[in-house]
């Protein structure tokens, strides 16, 4: 892992490879986004005017719907898995800072992180994604061996997973817009689990953009904190420490918040 600050790259060998894995995981999300936008542009007519004139048009629309449900599920699983990597990686960096930094530096970093409010916000931003992951895409409530959900929730999860009852809009397919009800739909069931949330690919992309921006802000604060620790403090904690510098010859240094 390395970070560029004022024209130098500081390497942290014990964290090598994590940054690459994170970057490649984000690239997976971006590939899903690109596929969604391309497919959406190709099938705008099907979304504005629901096909019903020819069997071919109906089949083509159903194929688009299947791809869209697959993209939504893949995006949700990838994003929520990436969240776990982020949390562990950020925790590792903060522990590293805590072992080496002075008391004043530790306090300054904690104050900066609290001021962003990003930690609490990140958790809230992925509530819907985690709900869909846990109840539909990691395993459906219908197929769960624990059978925690009531009948309505279990059969609704199966409908959402298969794309049945999906709503149609110019922005794509919206899943979770259907509920299977057992009993009186007017009075409801007091033991019925909360409804499965509805979501569209476009909404997921907006959520991911905000989430990744908040995580990057916290990450850069911690990395700046690590960069501010003098060499003597690092060597005291680890006699084998060696800070690696690479100057930018004849070029403007990268901005201090740009990853190298």
Task: Note the main attributes of this structure.
about 260 residues; mainly alpha; two-stranded antiparallel sheet; 9 helices; disordered C terminus
Molecular structure report:
The chain has helices at residues 18-42, 44-48, 55-100, 103-116, 118-125, 127-137, 151-162, 201-227, 231-237, and strands at 2-5, 8-11, 167-169, 172-175, 199-200. With 260 residues, it is mostly helical. It has one domain. The strands form two sheets. It has a three-stranded antiparallel sheet. α1 packs antiparallel against α3, α3 crosses α6 (127-137) and α3 packs parallel to α8. It is elongated and about 75 Å long. The chain starts with a strand and ends in a 23-residue tail after the last helix.
- Taken from the alpha-carbon principal axes, the silhouette is elongated
Question: What is the helix content?
Answer: 55-70%
Q: Roughly what is the average pLDDT, rounded to an integer?
A: 78
Question: Roughly how many Å apart are the termini?
Answer: 9 Å
Please summarize the sheet with the most strands.
3 strands, antiparallel
| Number of DSSP strand runs | 5
Provide the spatial order of strands within the biggest beta sheet.
Answer: 3-4-5
Structural classification: mainly alpha
How many separate domains? 1
Gyration radius, in Å: 24 Å
